[in-house]
Each structure stands twice: as C-alpha cells, then as structure tokens.
Amino acid sequence: MIEKLNNKFHITTFGCQMNEHDSEIIAGMLKEKGFVRVDDVAQANIEILNTCSVRENADKRFFGTLGQLKNRHDNSNDFFVCVCGCMMQQQTVIDTLKAKYPWVDLVFGTHNIHNLPSLLDNVTREKTKMVEIWPDTETIVEGLPAERLFKHKALVNIMYGCNNFCTYCIVPYTRGREKSRTPENIVSEIKDLVADGVKEVMLLGQNVNSYKGESERGEVTSFAQLIRMINDIEGLERIRFMTSHPKDLSTELIEAFKDCHKLCKNIHLPVQSGSNVVLKRMNRHYTREQYLDLINKLREAVPEITISTDIIVGFPGETEEDFQDTLDLVNQVEYDSAFTFLYSIRTGTPAAKYEDQIPEETKHERFDRLVNAVNAISEKKNGEYLGRIEKVLVEGSSKNNPFALSGRTDGFKLVNFPGDPALIGKIIDVEITKTKTFSLEGKVVE
C-alpha cells in the first residue's frame, strides 16, 4: 500500500496530446489509489514532470522547472519528485539526471506508466531513489483509469509508437515501434466514454493513418474502417484525429470524410517542408507534388475542410531556394493554421550528425518570414467566417476572458462569445461577429 503522507499530487505536462493523455492516465491511477490532484505544486507532496523530447524548448523548460524544485525537496522529508515521458527513454537524459539532479526520487519511461503505483509505493515507503525504464514492448495495457480534462470530450489512443524514422525526430526511439489497439477495445472504450457524457473524441497516434488493428477474429482493420465503426456509435457527435502522415493518407480515408457525418471536416497534415530536396533528407517519403495532390483531393471531396500543418525551418542543408519552395507551398495550400518550428538538434537522430547545420540567425530570419506569411493567410481565412452561423462545442471559460465562453467549430476554429456557463458541454449555434488571426468572436443564436 502506498504511504499516502499528505495524499496530494501535481502533474506538469510538456509536449503533445499523447503526453496529455498519459498525464490523464497517471492522474486516474493515483486518484484510484486515494490521492488527490491539486492545481498548485506548493500544495502537493508529489510532483510529477511528464516530459517531451520533440523540441529543444521543451527540454529547457523541463530542466528549468526541475531545478526550481530542488530547494523544497532538500528541505522536506515528504516531498517527492518524479519524472517520466519521452525524454526519459534517452540514455543521455538519464545520465544528466544522475549527474546533476541525483535528488530526483523516481524516473520512469513511456512503456511502464501503468506500473507507477507500485514504483511510487517503493519510493515513498523505502525513501529510495529509483530509475526504471522499460524497453519497447509489444504489450498494450488496456483498461487503465484516466482523469479527463473535459467532461464532454476525450483523448483516445488507437496506437502507440512510430515506424517512420524521419531524420529529425526522436519519437521512434522514445515511443518505440507501431502497435495498434484492437478495434473492439477502442470501440468499447468510446462507448463507455459516451455513456459518461463525452460528445467528442480525439483519436491519437504518432501516425494514425498506419493504424492496423487486428480484430478478435484475426481480421485487420484499417484506419478508415475504424472511423466508420466509431461513426456508428450512438450518442457520439464528433470524431477528430491526429497526427496524419501524408505518405499514408488513403483514398479510403478521404471517402470517409465525405460519408461519416460525425467525422469533423478538419485535418492536421504535417508537410514539414515544401522542398523535395529537404523532404528527401528528412526521410518523409513523399514529394511536394504528391502532397499538393492530396490537398486537392481532400478539397474536391470536402470543399469546406480546414487544414493545418507543421513546418520546420532551417533543417540542415536548407538553401534559400528550398525555403522559397516552402513559402510557395504555403501560399498555394493556404492553411487555416500552421505550427512553425525552428529546427533543433535531437541527439540520437541522423540529422543531428549532418555537417551542414544552418546558422541560428538565418533560421530566425526565415522563421519570421514564414510566420508572417502563415498569419496573413490565417487572418484572411478567418475573415471568411464573418456573419456565418457555426455549430460550436462549448468547452469552458475563455482563457483570455473569464466572463466569456470558448469552444471549437467542426473545423476546429476557436470561438469566444458571451454566454451562460450552463452551455458548457453543449453544441450550440454561434453567429460570428468578429474575426481575428487566431480566433473568432461571436454571439449565441437564440
């Protein structure tokens, strides 16, 4: 039995929605053991840092946050610090923790989250330091409890790991090889979520397009087939997914956008670069021409679809001509939004060893030009919504105005509007009265 002490824990999460869902599971397991989650680490006796290894900035934030905990840890006998997540699957990070942060109580990885209660039991009872990182395993642990951030929407993992080995990405080394959950388990989980009040699910995977879930009868289910199965679940109103790799985006999935009325007309389709030379060095397995053809097919099938993307600036060897190819592609596609990143070296990836690294000042100058282009297009695209009436799933209070509500359209547009908090969790009609670069404003249609 875990020695409960003050019985309070706090989680700090870095990174993507996969990490967010892992934190939901961690919270669910601890609450099942009698612990209470608190919003302020000052009130907790257990702090858990769930790390991300994709971007250098996340690394810096993690170590900065970790360093701030040392003084309290050194002056307390009942304050425990635990670190987990993708960074912990890298030996260089483990070595750094042992050398510079030996006071950390527990280190565990992405493959043994389900073992946290027993690990924490040892740490709190025995007052010992533990590092337990499991290698990649074929086992998928089902049925773990989760404390959702929202009552009306949920994150659902459909697969784990990645087989793509993009030369800039550490994920295959930290999350392991692709493993798909069975379609029966996924459908069963979503039915339980709907019974608990969930109206929207976000299906998660490093590359959902390569989902191949083997059914109990031994039949293989494709991602598009899984979407159709979920679309038939009574009571569910919206289906979203991420992330979608262009090389595996099938005609079958494009057809599902047309046929499945619950599948939101929005897709996040990371392009990373508009240059064929850079795409090849990134090991992305598609050309700009193939990518643009996919965009055309999506828009032909679903003219109202909204499209977002990821773009990396300053990948090793990127020339000004390569960068211009990226700008040209952005102007052709006209994304509704884009996540733009400066390339950062990830130790352990092939690109980290490339000798033709781009100077920081060049990367920043190109980044600024890209952001200006992306933002101008986003402002223009959002401007088209003025006067429209959109169905919005009300998520809660607006981050910037506690007196207003906030929610998302089918196309994932963020809308802020005045309204009764009783509307939270409902899908309502909102008339768009003002448009901005990154969001919309509106009023409830009575």
Describe the structure concisely.
The chain is built from 13 helices and 21 strands.
Structural class: alpha/beta
What is the residue-mean pLDDT, rounded to a whole number? 93
- List how many beta strands DSSP finds: 21
Straight-line N-to-C gap:
54 Å
- Main sheet: strands, sense, barrel: 6 strands, parallel
What would you report as the Rg, rounded to the nearest angstrom?
A: 22 Å
Give the low-pLDDT segments: 1-5
Give a verbal description of the structure:
Helix content is about 35%, strand content about 20%. The chain is of the alpha/beta class. β11 and β12 form a beta hairpin. α8 packs parallel to α9 and α12 runs parallel beside α13. It starts with 7 loop residues before the first strand and ends with a strand. The N terminus is likely disordered.
Key attributes of the depicted protein:
446 residues, alpha/beta, six-stranded parallel β-sheet, five-stranded mixed beta barrel, 13 helices, 21 strands, 22% strand
